[in-house]
Amino acid sequence: MRTSATRIVGASAIALAGALVLTSCSSSADSGSSGGTASDTNCFLSGADTAPAPSPSSASSGKVTISFMEAMSGGSLKGSLAHLTADFEQANPDISVNLEESPDYSTLEKNEKDAITAKKAPTIGQVYEGWAADYARSGVIDPLDGFTGTNPAAVSDLYAGVRDDLKLCDGETWMWPFNKSVYVNFANQEMLKAAGRTTPSTWDQYATAAKAASKNGVVGITIDPGGKDSLTTGTIWFEILAEAYGTPVFDRNGVPQFNSPAAVKAMRYLADLKQAGALAVGKNYPGETALGAQKGLFDISSVAGYSYEKQAVGGRFTLGTSDLPAGLAKQANQMNGTNLVLFDQATPAQKAAAWKFMQFLTTAASQAYWATATGYLPVVPAALSRMSAFVAQNPWMNTAAQALRHSSGTAPVPWADDTQGELAVALTDVLTSGTSPKDALDKAQQDAMSDMKAQQ
After folding, report:
1. Low-confidence winner among 163-167, 249-253, 402-406 (lowest mean pLDDT)
2. pTM (2 decimals)?
3. Which of 64, 230, 310, 345 is the most buried (most CB within 10 A)?
4. Paired strand residues for 227
């Protein structure tokens, strides 16, 4: 069930008093008027007291119980995870898995941090990338290379984008994939055909189609630009555009590069659509509402919202679903969802058992079940052949899963949420106040650098 128009990601600014002692990262960022891009900043994990990678060979035999803190509490998610857990326990009778459920991600993060402070951390936990970065910097989770090295196929079997999302800036694997979705373009196929266009494969074609359809009360696309504390699909679209034009909004060390030439070009693209009358702004999933009312041609949203888009359309026209178009530099997309981490407080036997469970969750069979039951994407391509009947009835699943090949995760740094909020402010200023893209992004860069330094 939707509770707001925001995407819930990253750290929630809950302090972990005493337990998470954060180390600083050095920066040689230019501090001029544009804020600088600081592409040569050191990895924020430099100097952190991180644990060595564990090895499953250190585990002892016998019965073992592991705990899993998770937030799969609603709808099909709860029953599906319980089903997979029961299957695992049946195949591994010496391992018991206790599911420790939280009602939402904010509560989950608080529960994990409270447990760490009380020295009662779970064995594994569901996390966003920013949480993992915070935990790794604080030395309360283990890198996984000691485990993944014993089964490299488990890593190579993953989609490339999923695989790349598991590392932090030190190059080590700190996370394991769990629930993933991507962004897709929903379209009114009849309206697209009437405008004399086909499914766009480039962002230039996308703009041409949006402008061609924008007449007689129809606007090509409507977005919610969000705000400082409300990161929405509008801001995510801008981030995807910037990467597609050649420069992601964070460098490899998680340092903001919000005013790069690619980012300015992406913002100008959106401003041009607005000026041409092909883009409107609103609140609370406005693109979905406009598309369903046949007042919009496109809507960019998470594939997890497919059922909501279908409900809004109500069978009045053919709902098209496609991957996001390519930019001048590449085809880009962004993943939603979480990964798993292994907490340092667990015993060697628990860590070895947890790794078995984590591998089980990403087998083709498990992922096929998980995807068909929940609508999340399978993180291994091999799962699709096991769900052919489902894909035939739901072709969006194959379309979205293939996007995992070129999708990127949320920036794996503790300051991701705060700094991305500055982009939302810039987007709002450009689209609602007419601020120039360059001026808005220069200010966003300055403010983002201040946000980052405040968390070092």
Report:
1. 249-253
2. 0.88
3. 64
4. 230
